[in-house]
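Why 4Fe-4S binding protein? Reviewers of the renewal asked for a concrete example.
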Amino acid sequence: MAFSLASLFGLKTHDTTPKTLVVLKHRCPQNHRCPAVSACPVGALSQKGQKAPTVDRERCINCGKCTRYCFPKALVMEKA
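Here is what the prediction returned.
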């Protein structure tokens, strides 16, 4: 039976499952300039007018930084 010290002491372990950025358009209010666009360290997010942002998959490094700037939680990291 395999176990880890983290599970023995009830600690959360870091999930190493690959995740990808997803835009949930139904959660995006689409009434303002998205702050997550300028927060992206590699410029993978873009926005036309006030529409929901789009992700350039070639540039996105799946760091999740943009999700911290999206208050309605329209940008989420989901398991690939």
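The first strand starts at residue 19 and ends at 23. This is the kind of structural detail the renewal will allow us to pursue systematically.
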